[in-house]
Design the sequence.
């Protein structure tokens, strides 16, 4: 995999290969867009009510149903905000 990606690498500092910093040139996205999309993915996953309910091990049916509805609303809001923040739609 390294040999395949080597021509696209933009970073030589191994400390930057942390799974969060863009270290290669994507054919369709800028480094800023890659960083934005990765941050959005982390935010959607870790900042959702459902993640918190799972972390706190809440299994009550009524509470889980309410949390699931809230999770959908939060996800929809994140999607709207991300679209507004993007300079252009991301195409991979």
Sequence:
């Amino acid at each position: 995999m390294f040999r395949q990606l080597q021509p696209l690498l933009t970073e030589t500092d191994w400390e930057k290969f942390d799974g969060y910093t863009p270290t290669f040139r994507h054919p369709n996205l800028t480094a800023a867009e890659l960083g934005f999309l990765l941050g959005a993915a982390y935010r959607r996953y870790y900042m959702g009510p459902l993640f918190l309910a799972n972390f706190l091990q809440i299994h009550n049916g009524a509470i889980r149903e309410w949390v699931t509805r809230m999770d959908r609303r939060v996800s929809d809001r994140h999607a709207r905000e991300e679209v507004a923040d993007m300079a252009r739609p991301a195409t991979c």
